[in-house]
Write the structure tokens for this entry.
Amino acid sequence: DAGVIQSPRHEVTEMGQEVTLRCKPISGHDYLFWYRQTMMRGLELLIYFNNNVPIDDSGMPEDRFSAKMPNASFSTLKIQPSEPRDSAVYFCASSLWGRYNEQFFGPGTRLTVL
Amino acid sequence: TQLLEQSPQFLSIQEGENLTVYCNSSSVFSSLQWYRQEPGEGPVLLVTVVTGGEVKKLKRLTFQFGDARKDSSLHITAAQPGDTGLYLCANSGTYKYIFGTGTRLKVLA
């Protein structure tokens, strides 16, 4: 079975540009999570969805960040305009309903904003 | 907001040595998970512990959950280079996971 798929794996852009990160969760999973990982702040939850509906976006740092999940097999995280402090590795994860269920992480997108 | 502190932050040891890393919380865990993250990859679940005092073993890895459910430890026996990675604990009691600060382990051959 394919795991969580993220694209692109690496993105280099200039400050002020729009960036779109993509995620395909594991088929059948009903929860999807977006995380950001930096050396300074570690792994932080940005937003999560249940059955394509955003449940908690309190971790989204600013209005420049937005996430959508138009269907069960696709989600995007958009940053507009991007800033150098957005440079980080962004992970998507998915899981099945259940209190202690495992989160399956994708390989991440390494974003560099110059 | 719950804070998860892990120690040590960095650990470099020789192959064959034993080690223990710790995860301490500012509040009680409802359940706790340990993940390992290898360079260039996402975290992968190692174990979930739920009951205070619980001990789980996974080959050379032993996980212990504190009686008061505010701390946990991961002990590795006879470490191997394949154990190299970032070890993360997480409060998995709700879907709003909180991850610890991580312990970066390097095992030298």
